[in-house]
Amino acid sequence: MIQAIVFFPLVGALIAGLLGRIIGHRTSEYITTGLLIGAALLSWIVFAQYWFAPPAAEGAHGAEHAATKVEVMRWIVSGALDLRWVLRVDTLTAVMLVVVTTVSSLVHLYSIGYMADDPHRSRFFAYLSLFTFAMLMLVTADNFLQMFFGWEGVGLASYLLIGFWYTRPSANAAAMKAFVVNRVGDFGFALGIFAAFVVLGHLDFDGAFHAVEANKDLTFRFLSWDLHAMTVVCLLLFMGAMGKSAQFLLHTWLPDAMEGPTPVSALIHAATMVTAGVFMVARFSPLFEASELAMTVVMLVGALTAFFAATVGLVQNDIKRVIAYSTCSQLGYMFVALGAGVYSVGIFHLFTHAFFKALLFLGAGSVIHAMHHEQDMRNMGGLRHKIKWTYYLMIVGTLALTGVGIPGTWLGFAGFFSKDGIIEVAYAAGQSTGYIAFWALVIAAMFTSFYSWRLIHLTFHGKPRGQHHGHGAHAAHDDHAHADHAHDDHAHDDHAHDDHGHHGSAYDNAHESPAVMMVPLFVLAAGAILAGVVFNDLFFGHAEHIEHFFQGSLVVSEELLEAAHGVPIWVKWSATIAMVLGFAAAYQMYIRDPAAPKRLAHANPGLYLFLLNKWYFDELYDRIFVKPALWLGNALWKGFDDMLIDKTITEGLGNRVRDITGKVVKLQSGYLYHYAFAMLIGIAALLTWAIAAGGLLG
Amino acid sequence: MIFSDHLLTFITFLPTAGALLLLLVGGRDEAANNLARYIALGVTLLTAALSLWLWYLFDPSNTGFQFVENYAWIGESIGYRMGVDGISVLFIPLTAVLMPAVILSSFGSITKRVKEYLIVFLVLETFMIGAFATLDLAMFYVFFEGTLIPMFLIIGIWGGARRIQATYKFFFYSFTGTVLMLIAIMAMYWQAGTLDIVKLLTFKFPPEVQTWLWIGFFASFAVKMPMWPFHRWLPEAHVEAPTGGSVILAAILLKLGGYGFIRFSISMFPDASHQFANFVFVLSIAAIIITSLVALVQTDIKKLIAYSSVAHMGFVTMGIFTGNIYGIHGAIFQMISHGIVSAALFFCVGVVYDRMHTREISAYGGLVTPMPRYAVVFMVFTMANVGLPGTSGFVGEFLTMLAAFQANTWVAFFAAFGVILSAAYALWLYRRVIFGAFTKESLKGILDLDRREAIVLVPLVLLTILFGFYPAPILDATAASVNLVAENFANAIGAAPAAVAAATGH
Asked: Which residue ranges traverse the bilayer (chain A) (predicted)?
């Protein structure tokens, strides 16, 4: 069964990619989507086996009992290294299987509508399926290297999909940036794999996890220092997670990745690929448990990212970028949970987030589709009358993202359970880092609520501000307009299907999306409403329930869970209060007093520009990495290679030789025969010597 | 006489026989040219088939030399000695399989002195296979040095505008290196009294002699690899060489250096290799980082790929001089993989060069629109060049870096920068050539891969992906010999296996 789940998308990708031109776009779409839906149904069957696992299985403790492994073939076998392609299924994998295949099949379905006019549709579907295959290889990996394969594979698919509209320079730049920044993370991941092998002696998960116990106090010489071995291993691996999950310092590629078609953003840059880092840390929880420092770093990086990304999200004007920063921020939440040592809650948030974030992205896609590929929220407004269903569904997504619910009861949207869970876990983790993370997350929760409702208000409420709409046009540009020069050109989601030629405004022509796009939204909305309440017990209930559910596929700490459940009542309410404050602020600024944002921006131009320009990370990296690398490359090429080695030494030496021999023989004649002759003489000399030596000595 | 007992002789000299046959082809008209082309193609295909048979017959569990032929020639000391072990066996099919592709690719692009071109390539094939197959040091020298002459003619006659400078540099570097090697070979003979490689492998040279011998061989192989900073001839030679010349240069000739390091430096001078290991690591890292940076700013497609070759060879030298199993295994794999991938990349450049007659990156852009098939093929090799898992480029890089991490974490740390930089230069090249809007007037009417080009490139695509997912055919064939080399090296330097030494409890 697991073979079918993993290889159906590969088959789809190959058919659509290689035969797309022969069988036609429509057939490619149906084949890839059909195979994905098949994989999704099978995944739910696999998941159900863990969900409803009989209590008897509890007797069998430890990872190796719960994991099913299917060997496909050998991979790298050298010396003591024996790496094979193995599909591993345990609870953690099953959760990821469900997330990946469900969202992917819905995105496939949605894309049939969204990409309907694109001339390269079968290529698009081939990439989507290829991505899904790589992601499934990642989550079913049984050794570090196979995970790395999936890891790079999703990177490749992401690169191809971000740059899908290859005629656009901005898309190509974003694609390359995504790949290269991820490679910076992979630099750490690769070194982490080497370190794990040297320290633990195994690259298969079970072998490595078993070896942790014996090596947890080991020191290890890394570079020039003797360091705690497990800390080195974990921090290097975490660097990979930071790249893939767009954490602080390595986050810069994610917002740019929005250059890709919107279904891609929903699938890869919201629900699945970017959560690979979270999955990785959860998978390696036995390693991370051995290093307190690494756990602290994970938590602080998560908290910082959650806060940082939320602040940037406050002022962005591109509808997709707001959601992108929101994703970045929510990933930070997940890492806080992991860093606190309550891995199941991190995975819980990954699970619920997949539904509501995919819903928000696909909803945004529906808005963009309706607005004929307009992405700037300043040119939207009032859309709730035009696209009613999209509006309601986006509201559901927003309620889930902001975590609406009543603490202490079973009433709440998906995000309410998982996000509040994380905030409680952070508080319970205690110590200074726990409290820092706790407050960062509460503040981020308030910002989340603010920017989410700001998005809803700007897009759906108020009056239309479309460009062709008389007085509305100027208002739209005046708002925040003073910062436009600093703002990157908003790439509009325009491709071959370009409706800008329409008369009248985008607003007038706005239309609800076709059913094939709306059905996935409804399914995701159901997930966004129910995923929390249904699965809360499995991920964040009683410790024994969680342990029974996960069957040792990640570390479950009873003590930490008890602490998280027993936090003071004000902590349990803190996220809800923050959420209400954010909502109120957004309502005040965008409904009651629409001039307020402009006033505020004018009053604090420095802060506003700082946020609008994303803390100036792109500019900083350009100055300290990109430009120096190019300068150095040029200097080494022109200066060292060409000038020193070539002109001075090689040719200089040649000239000296020529000067000396010039009078005797014109050796430097440039005729080939001379050189060839010289070489033949060399060989003849060798043979003569050989014969002489052989004759004398032999 | 059993045919398979003399298989190596047949494989080695069959191309020369083909070259002699070509001499009989008279006339300069198109019919004669075509006849010559098909004779050369037939001969190289037959050689390739024999080389694959050799691979098939090769017993991977046997650590000794196989298919051995040993006849006295000049006295007792120099003999006609042939034989292969796990270290050398795969380079023969690599060479022989690429040759038909090289011949085929020349069909459209070489129109002047066709017969001579083909003869030179066939002679070159004999020298290359001979260098890998011989077990006599004097013969090795002759074959090794012999490869210079045809290559020299290929660049000098069929090369580009600055071919004279390029041949001068090529000659200057190579010859200086090999002269020192020749001196070392003579010294070895005076020490050991034989030039039989099998006997030399068991002969223990005194450590102080090893140092000098090591330097002599290093001079030659470092230039051949090429290692930084002896690499300057390579970009020039590549740029000026015709496509076939670049392919053979990158895919096979560079590998002579790596093969030599394993066969001679590590195996015969272990103490000196150990002593110089850090020196080699520094040069390898310099190759990986510095040439990658230089590749980043190139404006000529061929130069960019040439510099990236130097960077990839940095992983090979780094792996070899760790002296452990993963390093040597990875180095051999990396060489085979680079043989396939760099050959394919130069073929790819040749495809657009044949159409546009320029190698300037800025002359291209948006090629995906008129050439979708080309874009796919180029993407596969770009990713293999980047070392993406699932392509053959990954396995060698992984193993050599793993070995380096065991040997010295600093080395692996710096080498890992290659992971980032290779992505940067390779993807940037791809972006500028393939992606973007197709607007350049001069490119209008450019055609996608034709059938002949597809026949050359598609098998290489399949091999790149096959060995990425299933490298076992290469790793298994070489494993036993690699283990032996690593074991002997460890014994010689008196070290415990690196895996244990690296981790120390407290």
From this structure: 6-23, 30-52, 91-112, 124-141, 147-166, 187-205, 225-243, 264-282, 294-315, 322-344, 350-370, 391-416, 436-456, 515-535, 570-590, 672-697
Same-domain check for residues A184 and A259: yes
DSSP for B1-69, written as a single string: --GGGGHHHHHHHHHHHHHHHHHT----SHHHHHHHHHHHHHHHHHHHHHHHHHHHH--TT--S-EEEE
Residue A212 and residue A188 in one domain? yes
**Sequential DSSP letters for A334-349:** HHHHHHHT-HHHHHHH
A226 and A281 part of one domain: yes
Decide if A636 and B290 are in contact by the 8 Å CB cutoff: yes
How much is the pLDDT for A62? 44
| Cα–Cα distance measured from residue A633 to residue A643, given in angstroms and rounded to the nearest whole number | 14
Domain count, chain A: 3
**Between chains, do B152 and A74 touch, taking CB under 8 Å as contact?**
no
Residue of B nearest to A689 (CA): B186
Note the pLDDT of residue A486.
Answer: 36
Tell me which chain A residues have a C-beta less than 8 angstroms from the C-beta of B472.
74, 77
pLDDT in tens, A551-577: 888 888 888 888 888 888 898 899 999
| Statement to judge: residues A612 and A683 lie in one domain | no
Same domain, residue pair A684 and A619: no
Could you tell me if residue A63 is inside a domain? no
- What's the pTM value of the predicted model, to 2 decimals? 0.90
Q: Scan residues 573-632 of A and list those with Cβ closer than 8 Å to B.
A: 629-630, 632
Residues of chain B with Cβ-Cβ distance to A181 below 8 Å are none
pLDDT reported for residue B73:
75
B28–chain A nearest CA distance, Å: 23
- In this structure, the dihedral spanned by the alpha carbons of residues A205, A334, A393 and A443, taken in order and rounded to 10 degrees, is 180
Q: Give B325-363 pLDDT, tens digit per residue.
A: 999 999 999 999 999 999 999 999 999 998 888 999 999
Structural domain including A679 reads 672-697
Handedness of CA A106, A109, A110, A115 (dihedral sign): positive
Two tokens at A86? 């193995």
pLDDT given for residue A566 in this prediction: 87
Tell me the one-letter amino acid at A236.
L
Q: Does A508 reside within a domain? A: no
Q: Which residues are paired to B155 by β-bridges? A: none
- Residue A522 located in a structural domain: no
- A278 is a domain residue: yes
